[in-house]
């Protein structure tokens, strides 16, 4: 007598019965039969519910005697693209009826790659200090708004509609962070286009009068517009001035007026050394006059009292000392 055993059908789904010839089974102790996965009466047990597969014809041994093992059934959980699309359609239908927040969040997770794609496209022409993560954060709000306002019954494609709403949300957030009015930005673009047209036509840089005529405005109005456009020429201090990642930022290249110039400090130290060497080579009386006049801040009359000479004589000594110092410094610089 044979026992039906479930095996996979030709299509891979469901099961059908097949006849497996019985093999002689030798009775074994109950404990050993239980440990080998067999029933107490010696009949084999089907393990189709466990999901484990075994090769057809594989045998286990009970007391050294082979026993029949049924073939297990393996079912695939992979869904095709049509199944995923059908699931999204059903999710849209359910969300349209219930407006459940959990279902909306599932739709947001499904369409989240659209936000990253649009943010990457928008961020291509923006300055380097604009973080793409901030654009993605703004785009998520646009995606949520698109999901809440989308009407699937119209038969339109959601991706096309959502990309426009995501891009609009990103641009709105960028405009809200801009300190320059939109009208000034628009005028700046008009000036740039006019400069390009005139440059291509004249093959040179146009003058202000020619640019004003191209824009159909007066020369005074053009110069006033230049003052407004200065607001748009602002860069971030943390923007790199070199293309590689190891480059310095713009803030590091700005001069510090309060800092000491190392080149000027070295030049000053060298000049002082040369002056000290030249003073040391003067005559003693000339050296005393220079020291008292420039370092002690004494007047010529006070120096005359110290040296016991008249003020006019001190003036003559000072003039002679200065001329000698100038000659020695010129000789050192030429050497």
Automatic annotation (TrEMBL):
Keyword DNA-binding in record: yes
Region of interest (Disordered), ranges: 1-80
Alphabetical UniProt keywords: DNA-binding, Sigma factor, Transcription, Transcription regulation
SUPFAM superfamilies, A to Z: Sigma2 domain of RNA polymerase sigma factors, Sigma3 and sigma4 domains of RNA polymerase sigma factors
PROSITE patterns named among the record's database cross-references: SIGMA70_1, SIGMA70_2
Superkingdom of the source species: Bacteria
Domain called RNA polymerase sigma-70: residue spans: 134-147, 299-325
GO biological process, one term: DNA-templated transcription initiation
Protein's UniProt keywords contain 4Fe-4S: no
Molecular-function annotations in GO: DNA binding; DNA-directed RNA polymerase activity; sigma factor activity
Function noted in UniProt: Sigma factors are initiation factors that promote the attachment of RNA polymerase to specific initiation sites and are then released.
Family: Belongs to the sigma-70 factor family.
Protein name: RNA polymerase sigma factor
Organism: Lentzea guizhouensis
Taxonomic classification: Bacteria, Bacillati, Actinomycetota, Actinomycetes, Pseudonocardiales
